[in-house]
Amino acid sequence: MARDPFVVVGGDAAGLSAASKFRREADRDVVVFERGRWISYAHCGEPYFVEGTVERLTDLLSLSPADVADRGIDLRRGHEVVSVSPEQRTVTVEADGDRFDQPYAELLVATGASATTGALDTALDGVFTIHGLDSAAATDAYLTSPAEYDWSRLGDGPVDEARVERNAALDPPERAAVVGGGYVGVEMTEALVARGVDVHLFQRPEHLLPPFGEAIGERVADHLAERGVTVHTGASVTKLVGDDRIEAVAYDGERLPVGMAVIGIGVTPNTAPLDGTGVDRGPGTAVRTDAYGRTSLPAVYAAGDVATARHAVTGAETWVPLGLTANRAGRAVGATVAGDPTPVGEVAGTAVVKAFDLECGRVGLTDEGTAAAAGFDPASETITAGSRSGYYPGGDETTVTLLADRTTGRVLGGAIAGRDRAAIRIDTLATAIESDLTVAELERLDLAYAPPFSPVWDPVLVAAKVLNGRLDD
Amino acid sequence: MARDPFVVVGGDAAGLSAASKFRREADRDVVVFERGRWISYAHCGEPYFVEGTVERLTDLLSLSPADVADRGIDLRRGHEVVSVSPEQRTVTVEADGDRFDQPYAELLVATGASATTGALDTALDGVFTIHGLDSAAATDAYLTSPAEYDWSRLGDGPVDEARVERNAALDPPERAAVVGGGYVGVEMTEALVARGVDVHLFQRPEHLLPPFGEAIGERVADHLAERGVTVHTGASVTKLVGDDRIEAVAYDGERLPVGMAVIGIGVTPNTAPLDGTGVDRGPGTAVRTDAYGRTSLPAVYAAGDVATARHAVTGAETWVPLGLTANRAGRAVGATVAGDPTPVGEVAGTAVVKAFDLECGRVGLTDEGTAAAAGFDPASETITAGSRSGYYPGGDETTVTLLADRTTGRVLGGAIAGRDRAAIRIDTLATAIESDLTVAELERLDLAYAPPFSPVWDPVLVAAKVLNGRLDD
């Protein structure tokens, strides 16, 4: 009798990476159930479609259903896994109003995450979250005047045409509120400004991009303000006001008339299929996984935005829903299920974001409080230094925050911002941190120097030098 | 009786870094003898002055003599140290036709390196090496038509005015030969093209930039050709032909009429002051130094382009005359002499170079033959991968060569080329190599991903994945 297939729930980064790797390594069947119509798309590209930088919606697709079929994967779109029976080793699937049970030998839950909206009413026209190609398409349509809407921008994909049509029929807004000053909020602010909208950005904490630290949060706020954005920090949007269409946002006793709101206040893992299984959970209610992506249920794996991971600095369980983590973990689970046990890898929390011309990166622990809570004795420094030799044009002052443990000297985290190749420099710190380097070792690294690219002492080295000097005291 | 001073020979990167650090840390005298008129200038910026990217010659100065005096350093320009007596602990100094002996408690030889020209006759007008501000000024003057020469470009420094005047009086060339396809040759090629000159680049080896490996050498050659440069590889220039002024270069039995030649075939350490002392030498006849910059002579240190260093990958003595090494080693020696023993640090051979729009970086061992000779069992792969998400505009195919040891999996070296933030990515590899990471560890690094800066799998990770797959076989 043939063995039951490897069943994957979710046809995006983690799920299809797993299925593809599995098929390359094993001569067994793999079935992927995807509840939606879209598969394998680049979430991170959605703001750039809205901005107009990406020409067609379908440019954001990595793999077509035909590509997936060519890889020997049995992909079933419009199939929602509604429950899992770990005892029976079956999943219950709903499709086209029918329901059936599918046995599995191994199961991977790769259902991703969804945007949260808190207590805000998102049913009003003109209110958007940016999570999925249909919402990106609807947002773009809403921003375009009815007479100018160009359907060819959608390309040839299974878009929700009714939703696009309704939004394209509405007059575009003159002013928008972006609620949330994280990655999505900052990227959507840039996108909306590019579309000619007057943007008010609301952030509940005192700084934008909290994972990047205060210095960089302030630099981003200044840069957005230079571009005409009104930045409200320490401001809570409590209500979206309107009858059918949004008319205003209410915040801190004030009211700002807007014709649009974009909500980017966070995401939550899509764990519904595992409800009732008693599977262990971790931070953010994400599904707890071990070094190989295994959950607490036998033969059940989880990967991507729905799963926890191990933090490279603290060694603790963490939840960092980002793209590379999902691809890597999916691929590793595919190999493991195929018989080649492969760790999913640790996450260092490396992230980069663009705000107009400003490039920002962060990795590890950037906050002394978080580091102290994790048992470290943290010290940190923030410096600014030129990105190129002073005499070579085109450089920019680069801000570097570096955090280390006083006891061991180990680098715990850092953040970088600047307009000249700043973001990619975070990879140097990510590599140093995952290699457990001390600040003294970081300071002695033989990094690149040539006038067009770096001064003799790269900003990363300057930060290490200053912080190391303080640790010596 | 007061202790004799710390004496430094050479007023450039290593020497002044040492003197500055020493004065900050110790309450003792330091004397710096510099044979020339210039101090503390950016060698690496000279091609960009010639190109016109750097406006004034004096923009290349880091410190003025007044800055140095403010640091409490006794700087004597126009003072040449002609010999060292390790027994007496004195140096013999020539200045203004006089000669005197200067006792030292500790001595640092930081005399740098000079351009070599092999058997080529460099006395002809129109023949230049790019090593020092006077040669940069003369080269620029030669490229400018007499009627248009602008003395203000020189700024307010001790330039050799007679030499500039002679070169400014000559009509600029239409065609130039650049002899040598290393860093200086490639950078000067870019500079001369920017000045409207028809450039023929001659390289004796089969590829440009040999330390970057064949794949990148070929990519650079293609890029130069696209910009109208005639690249001659495997071609030996044997003679510079002319009476007073260069008229042609002879190579491989052929003869090319040119009005200019720039020689960039290498440098040699300026060890003359130590002649007759019996000091130990290392590769390239550079002065052998230990982990603290000490030579084989008591109380005599060497740092910068004149000294050897320890290689981070092979652990062997090496000679890599580059700017960061000089600054760092000088600073470390200054601290050590001041009483705080500080290692000069290893060198990984990290280097970056720009060729028009193409950015190139290299680190460690990039050649299988060199790696095998150092006792490794090398394997290497070269890949190309996009620098950004495919749908985000502005990216470029990035070439990555990665070399590792089959036995241990350790990353030994790599090189990168591309037009979009390629050079600075070499710092990721430099950090990995100095941290002794394996290819498998490199592949699992949590590097940055965001569409404007990197695809999900950064080109560095793609290279690691492919090479690791081969090591697994």
From TrEMBL, chains A, B:
Q: What cofactor requirement does the entry state?
A: FAD
Signal sequence, renumbered to the chain: none
The UniProt keyword set, sorted, is: FAD, Flavoprotein, Oxidoreductase, Redox-active center
* Limits of the FAD/NAD(P)-binding domain: 6-313
Stretches assigned to the Pyridine nucleotide-disulphide oxidoreductase dimerisation domain: 352-455
Is Ribonucleoprotein one of the keywords? no
What is an example of a GO molecular function annotated in this UniProt entry? oxidoreductase activity
Q: Name one Pfam family in it.
A: Pyr_redox_dim
- Superkingdom of the organism of origin: Archaea
Q: Which family does it belong to?
A: Belongs to the class-III pyridine nucleotide-disulfide oxidoreductase family.
Can you name this protein?
Pyridine nucleotide-disulfide oxidoreductase
What's the source species for this entry? Haloplanus rallus
